[in-house]
User: What shape does this take?
Amino acid sequence: MHPSFVVGNPFVTLVRLNDHTTSLALVHSTSIHENGAARNDIHIKTLQANGSKIKISGNILTLVPSELTLNSGCPVSGFGLTWIWTGSYLKASAPVARLAVTTQKVIEISTTGSLIELVNPNVVIASAHLTTEKTKEINSQGLTWSLENEALNAAVDLIWKRMLELKIPVSSIALLRVAPTNGSFPYCSVDGSTPLVCEAATLQLSSSKALAITVICPQCNKSTDDLCSHMGGHILRAIRGFEEAIVSPVDHLFPCGFCGHSQLQHPDCVVKVKITGRGVEMDTQCPYQVQIKFTYAEKGSKKRPCRNVPVVCPLCPLPPRARQTDWRDGVWRYNMEQHLNFYHSEYAHPGKLSGLPLPGDAAAATLLDSREEETFGVPVRPAFNNIAEKSTDGMSTREKRRHANANAFTAGAAGGKRARHSK
Assistant: This one.
């Protein structure tokens, strides 16, 4: 009988940051998916032989050096260093839906089976390795995990060697886009050094050549250097009823523009958008997210016509006491027709010709360019003309100002300003 990897087991994998620094992370697994189907466990032999079709998700554990290591006078280079789990997971600030506040949320990452190494941490008494200040989240038994630095460095080398052998692009390494608020990552030694950084991966990601390296599409496992456009094709075909023979079909209800999973079933894929004086900001916890250059993505081009970017629905009212510059719920452009069906069903749109004329600002956020339909192999719809510009007749000066601000907000969210992911 082959040993199995079970949901809940720990593993280590490489994780990259926005500055391309790539380091090892200890992760507590929370889900396993093989070819898009959820699994409770999977044979280790299958995991190793077919890792590209297996997705493992989990939460990153907070590790600190053992006090015994620090008191022993071991060199700070990492030799003889022991890492201890504090009982906590890395967290980051995340906006609360429909409220102008943030909350602390445990960071989740997803990676392929090819990029993980299994670990078997030692169980130790936490108080023997941690100061009282660092034991606040240790379990009631006072026990925790320890791992030796040499073993973790060996895991870094094994993963990197496998990436070279299988020609896995470095940009397929899980991306930690948000900065943790309750711990340091990469894991730091007492002198501030980071012994578990993979220098080779960091160097390759930092090079200009690496910026053009492709990523793997989570739906079809094909390589692409433009995930948003590539995924946009899968999404548009799916919502227009053209099924594809792919590994993990797109979810039909509000699919995420990065991974194709339903935002209703995967809360991490929910996207928030806001406009500031510095441009458009977008926030999502989707593990497959990539940088979007709104200025180019909104306009589209002959080579890359896809314009599936998050927009703000101008028909949705602001939450109580919220401002136009606060975080707003974002809707991927290719999902706008679904959004209208669910939340503004009284209006017509290109997929539902009956109904009230669609306000012009909502039409701007919804309509597709014929180039997009042609490129992705779906029938080009006739021009949609049931559009009504909102009249400002009879409005007070204040109401006109609000109307103008709303239109400016929608235009900015749709494109034309430099995008910046929130930190």
In short: DSSP finds ten helices and 24 strands in the chain. The radius of gyration is 24 Å. The CA atoms of residues 51 and 197 lie 23 Å apart. The first strand starts at residue 4 and ends at 6.
